[in-house]
Amino acid sequence: MPKQVRHKTNYPGVYYINGTTSGTQKIERIFYIMYRKDGKLVEEKAGRQFQDNMTAARASSLRTLRMKGNLPTNKDSRIKKKNEKTINQIWELYKEQKFYLKGIKFDNNRYTKHIQQQFGNLLSSEITPYDVDTFRTKIMKTNSTGTVKNVLELLRRIINYGVSKKYSNPLDFKIEFPRVYSQKTEDLNSEQLNKLMKTLEEDNDIQATNFIKMVLFTGMRRGELFRLKWENIDFNRGFIKIVDPKGGKDQEIPLNNATRELLQNHPHSESEYVFPGKNGKQRVDIKKAVNRIKKQAELPKDFRPLHGLRHVYASMLASSGEVDMYTLQKLLTHKSPQMTQRYAHLRDDALKKASNLAGEMIRKISKE
Q: What is the CATH number of domain 83-182?
């Protein structure tokens, strides 16, 4: 049998031979790398062009990692594979344990659509920076920056879970996330807000209407209201305890007059929850009633009723010019001031109007 011809590449220590794919017998390149380890020359297969999505650049990246000792040789990998699990296997185990997470459905969609094909059959030790960079560039062409960030965050979470359970080895590099600059801030004009309030007053579902009003009066998140218990409301001190807010520890927000009046007149059943679900247990959904009210109030189709009303609450406070950004951050229970910064321009506009008003008043006085 004639010896296979080695073809040089533009990368040192990387060459390929021509082979054929199984089944279609299509010509494909089979990449190899050469390097020295402990003074001995190592020559091993890097991967196939189509089957492994291998390229000369990726092979070179593998070679560099192995030369530095950051990635095991093929021989070492075969030994470790007996104990390691693939990304697919780790994901299935992750889902079994984390079934209760409210975002697991979205994570499953992200995994199936983006991660599975690219990384599913790989061990974490086989994933290189080049793989992740190529993957990021690929999905950014057809997805928003926010989606790409969520997908990469999920990949990192799966790998970290595998490491914590000793199913796999940690990455020797950091997965870089794209910066999310575009953040949608929803708002309603006075006419839309008046129509919504009128609809709420006329609707018979007091649980749903008061739920929506609570978002408007307090800016609380949907999940925080689902978890809200009567014991979390301190009418004497005038505070509401928010249990397990997004991204942080329990916090307190003031019980304002509008919220106090609403809660004092709200049905108080035997359930410990303010907005109980079936059989008095914690509510997990209110979408149907909220969407019905949204339709009746003729709100914009792309307006998210609950999350959008949280933006309305924040926007009203910021545009009043009477609330500083630090106070607004505390009311919204934002973890960092950067999250509140999207409303800064509204406060600046209000301050400019107030400044202009003062100027006009002085001008009028000077003319008298």
A: 1.10.150.130
